[in-house]
Each structure stands twice: as C-alpha cells, then as structure tokens.
Design a protein that fits this description.
alpha/beta; Rossmann fold; 26% helix; 29% strand; globular
C-alpha cells in the first residue's frame, strides 16, 4: 500500500505595510486605516498618524496590525504620570493630551454611526471630565501570581501593551498580575489600603485563587469611595470562607485609615469571578456608605451599580434629564434602572416614574433610596424587562417618556418592539457602548423612531471608553 503523504502547511509570513495613514478611530481605541477588504485595525494608532505597520492577526472580517514605526503623528502626546503605564492595560491613552483624548472619543462615536449608516452631524462634541485623575469611585484589584510566580495584588499585565500590539493574551491563559503601588485613577487613601492589604495578606500566607486550577483562596480586593464625603467601603472576594484570618486585617485597615466605614468578605465559590456571592460577611464596621449624586442621597452597598465617575455622572444625568423634556405631568418608564438614581432624578421633574431592574438587591436599594429622599411618585418593579413590559401594555399604561440604560450588549429586539408599542413621545437612550447604540438606533428607526440628538459624555479619562446619550422621537414629529 502506498504511503499516504501528509499535507504540508506553510505558515503565513507576517505582512509589512509601509506608510499607512490612520483615518478613523474604532471602539477599543483601535486606529483604522484603509477601506473595505484593505481595512486595517492598528493597535496604538491614532487619527492622523502615518505609520509603518506589520499584520499580526487575521480574524474573521478583521485584520489587526501593530506599529513598527511612527512616521508622523498629529495629536499632542504628553509624559505619562504612572509608573505602571507600560504594563497596565487600563489607561491606554494617558500619554495623549486630554483635549485630543476627547477628539479621539468623538471619532469613535462617529465611526460607529458611519458604519450603521446614521447621521454623524447629530453628534455633539464630547463633554469632558473636570477630574482627569482620582475620579474612580470603585476599583477592583486581583490577587494572583506575578511573572516570577510570586503572590501579587494588583492588576493584570497587558501583553498587547507590553509588546506594542504584537502579542495578545492566549485563550485559556491568565496573564500575570503586577503589584500596584499607586493607581492614579483612585485616591491616595485607596492606594495606601492596597499596599497595606498586600503586606498583611502575604504575612498571613493566604494563597491567591487560580482560575485555571480552581485552587486557592483570595480572588480580589474591591474599594469603593464616596466622591462627596470620602468614606470608603473595602471588601475581599474569596473562594472559601476565610473570615477568621481576615478579621485582624480588617481591624488594622480601619485603624490605619479612619475614613474606612467598613470591611467585608464576599464568598464566591463559583468559577466566574463576577458571580453573585453565596455569602456576605461584615468583618469590621458597617456594610454600606452613602453618596450624594445631584442632590440625591444614595446608599451604596458592595453590589450597587454606580457610574464609576460620580461628578461626571451628574453631567450625564443632566443631559438625560434635558433630553427627557419633562414638565411635571409625564409618566416615565426607566428600564435597567439599577439602584434607581436616574429614576429618582426623573421623579423630581415628572408626574410618575416606573423603574424596572432584574437584580433583586438593586431594586431593594432603589426602594430604600426613594424612602431616604422622600420620593413618593416612583415605583420599582423587579423582573426581566421582557417579562415586565407586556404587563404594562396589558394594564394599558400610558407612557410619555422611556429611558433606557442597558448593559454593553444593548437592547434585545423584543424589548425594542415593546418600547415602540408603548408609543412614548420621547426615548432617552444612555449607552456605554457606541457600537451597540448605533445598531439599536438603526433598529428604532425601523420601529418608527428617529434620532434627533446625540451627546457623548466622558466618564473614563485616559481610556477609549465613552458614554453616549441619544434622544429619539416618533418619525411623524
């Protein structure tokens, strides 16, 4: 029998492209060069750049390239303040002037609208953040192993950042964690807590949790802080109940930093880091702090959803309220309402507000916040938007304005259909993902609603992320 020949596969050589001009910005902070089948997504590239690049990955419908040499660069670059900038994937744009960061973010929104065939003339210039550093009210740090295999507490190393886009994290592998000494996105007090916890935990010998091996104890350290009164809430997330050794750490944190109101432990035995914890234990102090947002007093627990930039969130809500055009008599439906911050602000200017949220704890917090602020014209319903809305339609609820603030994936078609069936005079859409926003606005057009205003708001300086508020009205208006 003849020996069957094995097929030989030649590995494709990486392709160099000299003198490429970057003409647009795409979500994730990618520079875009070329059009159609010749389009390149360039890591680390900015609008106006002329660069030599090398193709590093070919994905379905997408070709990714890394910069070999910058020939010319139009935007203004500055010196990064952070010692971790070269390894951390958090602040991709800390070396870009803030004025140009806002210009790039506007470009990302315009790119998404162009791709969807929407009118880019509607897009206003980004409302910039007054605070460029120490603006985050929540930071999540990971326990893990550094590049040498030693226990660490900090953030994940970005292979793309370290290699300037030539290498990426391989699927199924967890990048090393580097020890954060100071993160400029949070306060100095929060930075001191991270360092203190690292030393205390290393002394206790508690091992970091290994996601691949599903072994170990400590998963993450989360710090929340009020932007208005400075109070902090610190909580550990662990794969096992380790309250006894952490009690002393908790007492030490509260002694060293008097602004810490409470230290907690969340026990999460599931594989996913973001799974709802099976138990919550107060190790020291209390389990909640209070924040003030646009005059509202809001109770913040470990699981509460808040926009991470409190001061800029107030500007975001101002835009949403302006787009809602309330006179005091309207009935408003607020979908994906979270702990009810926007719902309660709407209620101050509307006749009645109904907030809908699937997370039971969030609805409980929303009801408490309504009571705290003496808001009596706001009702909260717990349930999936898909199941709640048909009941509203059956009840013949007349809704004048609908506000939506969905997760990054956007709105389901079936939810969109239900919203259009309610026939509101206005829809206000708050989005953290301009790509899915553009897709959904196009679908709303097919459902009889046109986009009349678009306002980007920057809540995340030094990153490519951008919030966008859109206002829609019926086509016949």
């Amino acid at each position: 029998m003849a020996r069957q020949r094995r097929k030989k596969y030649k590995q494709k050589k990486t392709q160099s492209e000299p003198g490429v001009r970057i003409v647009q910005m795409a979500p994730g902070g990618w520079g875009v060069a070329g059009e159609g089948r010749n389009r390149l997504s360039v890591w680390g590239g900015f609008s106006g750049d002329v660069v030599d690049v090398r193709v590093v990955r070919r994905l379905r419908g997408r070709v990714e390239a890394a910069i070999e040499r910058v020939i010319t660069r139009q935007l203004e670059t500055v010196e990064s303040s952070c010692t971790h900038f070269d390894v951390c994937g958090g602040c991709l744009w800390q070396h870009v002037s803030y004025k140009d960061q806002c210009m790039l973010k506007n470009g990302i929104v315009q790119f998404c609208f162009e791709e969807a065939g929407l009118d880019t003339d509607l897009i206003e210039m980004v409302i910039g953040s007054s605070e460029r550093f120490a603006y985050r009210n929540k930071m999540d740090f990971s326990f893990g192993r550094d590049a040498e295999g030693m226990a660490a507490l900090g953030l994940y190393t970005s292979p793309a950042k370290r290699s300037h886009g030539h290498h990426y994290s391989k699927r199924g592998r967890v990048p090393p964690v580097f020890n954060v000494e100071a993160c400029f996105l949070q306060s100095e007090v929060a930075n001191r807590i991270v360092v203190a916890v690292r030393h205390a935990v290393l002394d206790l010998g508690l091992s970091p949790y290994d996601v691949i091996e599903q072994d170990g104890i400590l998963r993450s350290l989360v710090i929340r802080q009020s932007a208005k009164n400075g109070a902090l809430l610190v909580y550990f997330v662990a794969a096992k109940d380790c309250r006894e050794p952490l009690m002393a750490v908790a007492e030490s944190i509260m002694t060293i930093e008097p602004a810490v109101a409470g230290v907690l432990l969340h026990i999460n035995e599931k594989r996913s880091k973001n799974a709802i914890p099976q138990a919550e234990v107060i190790l020291a102090g209390q389990g909640m702090i209070q924040e003030t947002i646009s005059g509202l007093r809001v109770d913040v627990s470990p699981g509460s959803f808040l926009q991470v930039n409190t001061l800029q969130a107030e500007r975001l809500y101002d835009v949403a309220l302006n787009f809602a055009q309330l006179t005091g008599a309207e009935k408003v439906l607020d979908l994906y309402c979270g702990i009810g911050t926007l719902s309660l602000l709407l209620a101050k200017q509307a006749g009645q507000v109904i907030g809908v949220e699937v997370v039971e704890r969030a609805i409980s917090d929303a009801c408490c916040n309504a009571e705290t602020n003496a808001v009596n014209n706001c009702e909260f319903l717990c349930g999936d938007v898909l199941t709640v809305m048909p009941d509203l339609i059956v009840r013949s609820e007349q809704v004048d304005v609908v506000t939506v603030n969905p997760p990054r994936a956007g709105i389901f078609r079936s939810v969109m259909k239900r919203v259009c069936e309610l026939g509101p005079e206005r829809i206000v859409y708050i989005s953290c993902n301009p790509q899915t926003l553009a897709r959904d606005l196009l679908r709303f057009e097919k459902g009889g609603y046109k986009t009349v205003a678009v306002q980007p708001v920057d809540l995340f300086p030094h990153t490519p992320h951008i919030e966008v508020v859109a206002k829609l009205e019926p086509n016949h208006v």
